[in-house]
Amino acid sequence: MSWWRIGRREADLERELASDLEVEEEEQREGGLASEEASYAARRAFGNTALIREQTHEVWGWAAFDRFLQDLRFAFRQLTKNRRFTAVCVVTLALGIGANTAVFSVIDAALLKPLGFPDPNRIVQFVLVSHNGIAHGASIPDLRFWLDRADAVQDIAAYDFGQAEMGLTSGTPQQVHGIHVTSKYFRLFGVPLLLGRSFSAEEDRPGSPNAVVLSEGLWRNRFGGDAQIVGKPISLDQQPYTVVGVARASFRFEPQAQLWIPFRFNLNSTDELHSFGVAGRLKQGVTLAQANAQLDSDSDAARRRGTLPDPGWRFQVRPFRDAMTSDVRASLLVLQGAVILVLLIACANLANLLLIQTTIRKREFAIRAAIGAGRARLARQLLTEILLLFSLGCIAGIVLGLGGAHAVLAADPSDLPYIGTPGLAFGVDWRVLGFAAALSLLTAVVFGSLPALAVCGKGLENTLRESACRQSAGTRQRRTRSLIAMSEIALALVLLIGSALLIRTFIALNRVDPGLDDRNVVLMTMSLHGAQFNGTARLADMVRRGREQLAAIPGVEDSAATFSAPFASRMGLPFVSVSSRVPISGDGEWLAVSSGYLNVLKIPILRGRAFDEEDKAGAPGVVLVNAALAKRFWPEQNPLGKEILIGNGLGPKLADEPRRIIGVVGDVRDQDLSQEPEPTMIIPDAQMPDGLEQLQADFGPIWWLVRTRNAPQTFIPQISERLREVSAGRPVGTVRTMSQSLSRSMARQKFNMLLLSIFASVALLLAAIGVYGVIAHSVAQRTQEIGVRMALGADRKTVRNMILREALTTGTVGAASGLCAAFFLVRLLSGWLFGVSARDPAIFVAAPAFLLLVVFVAACFPAARAAHLDPARTLRAE
Amino acid sequence: MSKNEQQRANLLQGTLDMLILRTLLYGPAHGHQIGKHIQRTTNDFLQMQHGSLYPALHRLEKRGWVTAKWETPPDRNREFKYYRLTGKGRKQLGIEEGQWKQMADAVARVMWPAAGQS
């Protein structure tokens, strides 16, 4: 059927009918009738032209389309007539579909989107597993162990975790994110190259010339897209590196890198520090289980021979994707569950609204059926209405979903991988959109059309006989509506309780005393990667000069420098006690700090003294411990004067001398506010073993902490300038205030709390609308009954209370079921909570009370309307 | 519809196509003429319901058994849409005629059995 010919065919038919009608008229006139009578007679003889047209259209196959257009026009009129109903339905649909789409799109980008590597499902990460945890970091002996066993896994590559910030030191200093990798990295992750090549096996060896691979972004921005860049040297941390290649911008990895340099491991090293990740690809035909079995037997054999690098641990391989997203997955899944609840509430609302509409229009359908509309015809028309309503809601939902997803991006919960990566184009998750849309459509169709169609059968006559005002819905429908309203209330309560728990967690976190004073402190990073600051002596010297320069700035109270700043990465080392009769050993967090650290952060000294000028290189080794360490390892004794040896057995690089404990400092929660402080050891930076200094400089920046009298941001330009001078041109990288670091550490909890609170608010709103709708409709149905009651002596108050009682009964039953559900479901949140138990009695009482209040308020309006009915009018109306 | 008309309408369904094709065998005609012809030839027994005639004509056109063209007859000064039988239409007429005869035969044998049959 060529649609463009529709018009022509119609015109043609018209013409044909007109001409034949004229002929008929002529014949009538010839038969002797007057001209006007003749034309009437002709028309009568001709018959119903509309019917002729219709049936011809049928032949042409347009009838269906014609009817659809007619239905559509009618549906549109219906919707614009009941504006309020349409608006509420569309909003409900939009909230349900939009919220789901937004959340699932974010989850999709973070978790489900396939990694853009070749054959990503065969990429595995090597991990060490013990009975109380998994370690993702590997040491060089571990790497050698795995490289020697290339049976099940190929293309084994190492990569660091990306805390290193390096400085481009030619021209304007600029800090860049660079990661160290081995040569197989490029092949394993399929890094597409724009120019040049990746690292060769020779460049993996220690002592090979400095090579670097740039990212396309850096190459364009910093080096102007120079097509001859391959082979040219660039200055990285004041050392010349030769560019060997440029990687395409389409390559994405976590952590995102702007350049790559080779590790150049000495594979014979016995360095026990676990500081990088190792990944590989399973060989064809090898499953994860087979690879793990192989690793197990190899480890056992090596353990028996005594050549296992990490005897206390088991080697395993895990899918790469899991390793990257495991800690985020749980929280995203809970959010997923919550947003599905919102969808269910939206569908329940929709169902109720449609049921109510059906009751109101029952009479209309009965009349239609009576004058000849078949069931199929009515169903088609109803479905068109529902589809139109649904499409409007769906479009609104998509818009809301896209907007919501972008809002989530903007909120930047910085530990969701792939989120907030500039240029990452993520789209709406169409599968989820489809699911949410399908569910809503199903609800709409079931609750919108079935009850209406039920009218067409036996109920037809009864419906027509009933007076317009006494349209009652029948007990079954009323009960269905109440049931739906109760389930909405129950689900809303679950979300409300969850959100309340998270809010209290967030408040509790905010109240935690971190043990340091975060006001008026500026943090700045500086990369010391490279030979210039190799060795503790040079570092300590630079730090000392830097502190002198900073002290000269008016308004600066004190300054300090360390590689392990609060809320940045932290090293952990084992230690053993040297002087006690009973050998004590343990692990603790470890910091090397310059003087001024305790003062800048206002960490109190509980016993003994802080570092002073005497504690420099060459002097007897000293260490400060925190109260947690003292309590755990010397609970009844005074730890002052005891000697410990740190980093025992970790290899010659970390060889240290025994240190005397000279003081105990207050506990600081400077990693995770919700965790108890770990035992910590602090040594002066001048006394740091060279090996450790080199390691830290290689893999992370140094942090400068500066305490100012007030308004820390205003000092930033001055401080960065002085620091640049002191470090001979190293750029300053990340700049923040300590308060910002503190808030960032709670970013994920804040994000979860905000999201769940949004869901709970939406759910409450929907539930309130639902209750209002049900009660208002019930009142509208019962106007006559209320009129009778009032006539028989009930006063306004009684009527109002009757309605309110009904609403509160629904609310209470709903709340009770919600409480039961919440009781079981809050277990899922227990990992997120801090400072509040999952079944906190206060919340479990306050939340339902609040919900009932909302229900009460929602029911007040129809109740008031019921109370102000004029019995005289309602009784007379028919 | 009265009972008689209803019966007649049922009879006409399916045979109307055949009657139209037969009418056009004589030569091209427009819709009104076809209707009048059938009415006259059956002595007004089959009254032309325009509601079924035009759909039928368009159905035949769609199936390619007739073609339609706007022409001016020589004795008038206005155009009519004339329908003509096509080769396919002629063949279809033959087929339907055969089928009708077979059916009439079968019905006759049941209704008025020849002597010697049950």
Notes on the structure:
- The complex is a heterodimer of chains A (878) and B (118).
- Chain A has 878 residues and is an alpha+beta fold.
- Chain A has four domains: 3-61; 140-309, no CATH class; 330-511 and 747-876, no CATH class; 528-730, no CATH class.
- Helices cover 52% and strands 16% of the residues of chain A.
- Chain A has 25 helices and 23 strands.
- In chain A, a hairpin with a 2-residue loop joins strand 8 (233-236) and strand 9 (239-247).
- In chain B, a hairpin with an 8-residue loop joins strand 2 (66-71) and strand 3.
- Chain B is globular, with a radius of gyration of 17 Å.
- Chain B has one domain: Arc Repressor Mutant, subunit A (Orthogonal Bundle), CATH 1.10.10.10.
- Chain B is mainly alpha-helical and 118 residues long.
- Chain A binds chain B through residues 12-13, 15-17, 19-20, 22-24, 46-48, 51-52, 55-56, 58-60, and chain B through 30-32, 49-52, 54-55, 58-59, 62, 70, 78-81.
Briefly note the structural class of the backbone of chain A: alpha+beta
Oligomeric composition of the shown chains: heterodimer
The rounded Rg of chain A comes to 38 Å
Distance between the termini of chain B: 38 Å
Pick out the low-confidence regions of chain A. Answer: 417-425
Indicate the CATH topology of chain B: Arc Repressor Mutant, subunit A
Helix content of chain A: 40-55%
| Radius of gyration of chain B using CA atoms only | 17 Å
Q: How would you spell out the order of helices and strands of chain B?
A: HHEHHEEH
Please describe the biggest sheet of chain A, giving its number of strands, its sense, and whether it closes into a barrel.
7 strands, mixed
